[in-house]
Amino acid sequence: MLLGIDVGTTNTKLRVYNHDGEIKEERSFPTPLFPDEEGELYHPQKILHQILQAISQFSGELRREIIALSVSSYAEVLVKVGENGEPVGGSIPWYDNRTERYFREIELDKEEVYRISGLYPYHIYSFYKLFWHREREKEAFEKTKFWTSMSGFILFYFSGIPSFDYSLASRTMLFRQKERCWWEEMLARVGLSAKDMAPLYPSGVVLGTVREEVARDCGLSPDTLVVTGGHDHLCAALSVGVYREGRALISTGTTESLTMALENLPSLSPSGEEKPFSWGHHVAYPYYYAMNGIYSGGYAVDWILRLLKEDYTFLENLSPHFSPRVSLFFPYLLGGDYEGAKGAFLNLTGGAEREELILGLLLGLCFEYRNIWEKMEKNLGFRIKETANVGGGTQNRVWMELKATTLDKNIPVPRDREGSCRGAALLAGLGAGVYKDFEEAFQKTFRVREVFEPQKEWQESLEKWFRVYVEVEKDLREINEKLGVLYDR
């Protein structure tokens, strides 16, 4: 048996799989967040405690049959580990805005940062979070023995070995992609060096076995292997075979991410005012990825349903129609690909009902996604031949059919929608030698639940709406720049 753990933005999931990818048992819990004066923080120790509780709830015989485990987690989040091995203070969520001040104040050569780290500077990256920790948690900052990811912290607790895998390091703005080492000059800017960071590893590497104390408390075999994990979206990509060029993953959760697999490092220079897509190391080492997406994918759907006091059953009865009075939504609730991006509903009238608002929101998500998709293909110089979609949003048939029609692609959805958990389990299996390579792991465990196809009768209408969306998006950028004056004050 293989144990995959996924620490997600909203929920943390644990699943035990057999070598054929069948789920034997599963547990989940809301990932705990705790308020502070500037928003919310993750408390790594609380997350760990609930993970240990969840493992102990698996049947005893099943726990003893687990031969390896691994962990996927959200990116950009840092955990401070002290001398005693305990986390020191809280961790800033990836989406948190408290770091915007440092982003505005710190001058960087943005093209150099992109060329070396694969990331175009933006406030969500770990580099900026370090400045907040140094300023606001000075004592905890000084007590930190090493910094790691949330995945790395959980793995450290299980194995006693500090680690920071390449895929999550790729999201810090502190990692030299070509050399696969920490970027000393960037760390020095915040008063740190490479020795303050956990050692770097590819994903799928055995760190050791579960510590005796943990094995005893959780009922695991002391021979259970602990294997390096990775970025949740990339673990999901592995689970659906997206690691070879020409394949892409749509991951629909709080964010809606687009991951295109690369076999070589891209040679790109950012141009214009838009943030380019990010790139870095895949969990399927030594492959790479290009990534972009909508920060507020599922978040936007949750937002509109909450405002309208509806739940997801409302979407099941939604009947798409594309009259001129449908509202057009721009999904920048958590930012966009330029500084100061804010969301908007356009084409609103007093006659707009719930159906028009929600349909407009779903259309906006689909149009923004296609816009991103086409830009990435153009910049990378190849077309995507195969795709798959994972995540909770795949349960919404209308959204999926709108997406398939807008992209004009068949979109398979795997039987197991939670690809990050499965990907972590596959990394565990690869580390334990259960699978000889990535392709065998994928082929032995991938099962299609449903394929969503383009709805031919919608295509003409959606194409017209999409062309309008692209043009109006340019106008909205100018409006947001003017509105930005309010925030600067």
Word description of this protein:
This protein is of the alpha+beta class and 489 residues long. The protein folds into two domains: 227 residues, Nucleotidyltransferase, domain 5 (2-Layer Sandwich); 249 residues, Nucleotidyltransferase, domain 5 (2-Layer Sandwich), CATH 3.30.420.40. 39% of the residues lie in helices and 21% in strands. The protein has 18 helices and 24 strands. The strands form eight sheets. Strands 1, 2, 3, 6, 13, 14 and 15 form a seven-stranded mixed β-sheet that branches. The chain has a five-stranded mixed β-sheet with strand order 18-19-17-16-22, sandwiched between helices. Helix 12 runs antiparallel to helix 14 and helix 14 crosses helix 18. The longest helix has 33 residues. It starts with a strand and ends with a helix. The mean pLDDT is 93.
**Mean pLDDT, as a whole number?**
93
Name the assembly state: single chain
Number of domains: 2
CATH superfamily of the largest domain: ATPase, nucleotide binding domain
- Largest sheet, described in full? 7 strands, mixed
What's the count of strands?
24
List segments where confidence is low: pLDDT < 50 over at least 5 consecutive residues.
none
Percent helix among the residues?
25-40%
What name does the CATH topology of the largest domain carry?
A: Nucleotidyltransferase, domain 5
